[in-house]
Every structure is written in C-alpha cells, then in structure tokens.
C-alpha cells in the first residue's frame, strides 16, 4: 500500500534547562511526520533524535525526510537504515497506527518516575511531584562536585518518605573511583535507592559489569543501550541487570518488540522529551513489553509549559 507523506520541524523550549553530564539542553526540536492511506485515514509519528545520546542528528533526520518522495510504501519504511534509529521509530509508529485496529491506549497500570533537577534544586522539587502522585524519582548526578552531591543525597534521603524510590542517573559522567564511591554510598540505602543509571561511559562496559557483580545496588545501562544494536550487543556480552530503553531513539518498534519477547530482560522504558505523539507510541510499547513493576521514566511534564506539547 502507498501512503501520502509530509513532515514539519517543530521546537519547544523547556520551562527549565535539562542539565546532565552531557551539558545544558534548553530547546527540544523534533520532526512530526504525517501519513495518509488510500482511504484517507491519517496517522502521525515523531522523530525526536538525541545525537549526543547515540541517535542521528536532527539535521540527518530532516535530510532523510527531504529526500523521500511524497508517496511512500511500507517497504521504504522498513528499509530505513539502522543509522537513523529515531527515524525508524517515528515512521514505524505512524505505520502501525494505520495498520492496526487497536483499542485506545491503556497505560493507566503504569507507574511513572518523576525527573528531578540536578543539584540542590532537587530538594525543593520532589514535594511538588510527590503531591502529583509520583513515588519514584530520578536525580541527575555527575554534574557538580561529588562531595557536594553526596551531601545533597543524604539530605534527599532524609527528606523523602520511606515508601519513595530514588534513581541516580550519572549519564556516563563518573570515573571508576567516583562510581565506587557512589555505589558504596548507595549500598547504605538498599530500600531507598532503586539503581544507579549509566555510572561509566559507554566504552567501560566490562567495568560496569564487574561493578554490578560486586555491589548490591543495581546498575542500569542507558547510553550503552541507546540503540537496538547496542542493546543486543550488551545482552550477548552478559548484561542481566537493568536496561533503560528510550523507544524514541532505540530504533524499530517491531524489532524491539521481538527482542523483548525473546529475552525476559529487566527493562525501564524512558522518555526522550517527545511530544504527545511520540509519547503515546512509546507508552504503547512500555505497556505491552514491561515485565516488572518498575516505574517508567516519563514523568517529565513539568519540563514543558502546561503539559506535554501537542502539535
């Protein structure tokens, strides 16, 4: 079947910059695609790259869209190269919506993790998220001096209710010594710390595997499994702890679905600060493929004006 294809570039400024070890992120840009089938049915998809995380750049995504004809086929969509994982997700998600007679998305059984700002600001923000119903929080580390961050962690643990869970996300920004310091610290709070996310850079896989076997605090891979190929490679190399999967940049939804169904991995699905279009497609996969009770990382509404932007 053939589909009419069009697209447009959009941007949305965050209410506050997203600060990670990778730098300061102030504006979210993405590409919204539109497919129309022969009956006139319309479907939308979103291409939301994060190049510093391992996907293609926004420019590469736009170049790909520009070179496509205005009428495309499913064969063209499934032939999108692996070097364009965000494009794979956006186009396949739009195609799935056209081809399926699915009921409305139901993800009400999912719990959400709320993203805290880096540094001391986290101490003033968790209460607002708690009042909104969040019971799991993610806090960025590896941004400021480690002594300061460890002191803030103590204060945060003291403030949080006993039933709350805290995730620490280093975005690959720690060295070996710092990672060990954090893990030693977290082992003192087994009931509060759920896991440390990507403590070391992507090229330190063997070191992270060793750390995961030595400390009781769980380690989750994130940047190391940004794309399907990386996910498959890490699994083949023996990773059996937590995988953080960002559907918006991981690649083909059909291939991701097949992998997760074949391997009962411990997975946390997470946002790439997409609009409501990409969010719905990502949460559909999370609702279908999550095999545990871990909160999904989509508690980022407070980083946009009002709510997750519609387009």
Q: How would you summarize what this structure contains?
A:
The chain is an alpha/beta fold. 36% of the residues lie in helices and 24% in strands.
Describe the 3D structure:
A hairpin with a 2-residue loop joins strand 1 and strand 2. The chain contains 11 helices and 12 strands. The protein is an alpha/beta fold and 311 residues long. It starts with a strand and ends in a 12-residue tail after the last strand. 36% of the residues lie in helices and 24% in strands. The strands form 2 sheets. It has an 8-stranded parallel beta sheet with strand order 11-10-9-8-7-6-5-12. A 4-stranded antiparallel beta sheet has the order 3-2-1-4, sandwiched between helices. The chain is globular, with a radius of gyration of 19 Å.
Class per helix and strand makeup: alpha/beta
Radius of gyration of CA atoms, rounded to a whole number: 19 Å
Strands side by side in the biggest sheet: 11-10-9-8-7-6-5-12
Helix content: 25-40%
- Average the pLDDT over all residues and give the rounded result: 94
How much of the sequence lies in strands comes to 15-25%
How many H/I helical runs? 11
Dominant shape: globular
* Distance, first to last CA: 26 Å
- Give the beta-strand count: 12
